[in-house]
Amino acid sequence: MDEWEEIEYKPIPVRTLLVEMKDLSELMIDLAYSSALFNNAELARDVLELERKVDNLALLLKMNVMIAARDAEDAKDLLGVSLVSSAADKISDAAADIAYLVLHGIGIHPAVREAFKRVEEQLGRFVVKRDSILSGKSLKELRLASRIGVDIIAIRRGNDWIIDPKGGDKILEGDILIARGAPSGIEELGRLAEGISRRLED
Amino acid sequence: MDEWEEIEYKPIPVRTLLVEMKDLSELMIDLAYSSALFNNAELARDVLELERKVDNLALLLKMNVMIAARDAEDAKDLLGVSLVSSAADKISDAAADIAYLVLHGIGIHPAVREAFKRVEEQLGRFVVKRDSILSGKSLKELRLASRIGVDIIAIRRGNDWIIDPKGGDKILEGDILIARGAPSGIEELGRLAEGISRRLED
Asked: Measured in Å, how far apart are chain B's first and last C-alpha atoms?
């Protein structure tokens, strides 16, 4: 948290900014819960990085909203956008609170564990190794949902995040995959990303 | 929002309080999004009522945490509980912000609509009428998920809320059902709750 980007105004549709803020904030909550449940510092750091992204988006959105509003009617129209943006910001702060808990080495109290556990589904975070058969393939080709029952909810590529990637999105070597699914499927995805397993059966 | 309950200390396990706070705050986000999408003031008022519940639970939890902590070690253990409780509180505030948007008649900007829409699933809120075949039956008997593809995510009974009800929970006349599912299933549930449809096929 030592480097701060300077905020520079860019004309971006408020719709684009708002959708991204909302999607990121919800992803952050899922990541934060998992980071606490599995005491996973990497996930917790992802959450804090995403919080900076959400904060930046919130400032950009504020600027774009100001410039978009020319009269009282515009301002009233855009009030909703502004309120929803604050809401997404609060949700991302909440996720960050939980991430701090993990990074400060505060043990996970059984009550917290109880609150966060989701019996059916688990979250996994895997780096795609050079040998992985996932590398270079699109999600459409891989059909991970039908084959191993996991859903890729985000791909982190360097400093960029692809949230809720679509079928046409490709997985590249070095990508970090955030996936949700049944524990067995998540384990299998880990083996595929590592290159330990090279078979993806129908 | 004119009547305020006096907060009275009750010895309740922090685990129970925390799980309830977390479940309520997540339900509130879903309700808030739907209230905005469908401009539904009833859902928005539900959100504000639940916010009061979450606030009360947060205070009760604080008291129970104070009393539970006898030494520095306890206090460190309980720090996580306290942080997660604040996080749930922030999430519930965010949901309330969105509910205010609806209740203040601030129009839903297309950007907000875009951010909130979930293509696959819809939320419904229905009062169970006297003639409804749902009345007096348990969720296990009704098997709504397999029959019409909807999941009852909460039942409001007077001032009480049953969040994530289980198979043994019964639906009673006058209950308000909050359900999630495909639009066609939600419509069907509405007809069943109203008593317009009295057939539930396998």
From this structure: 44
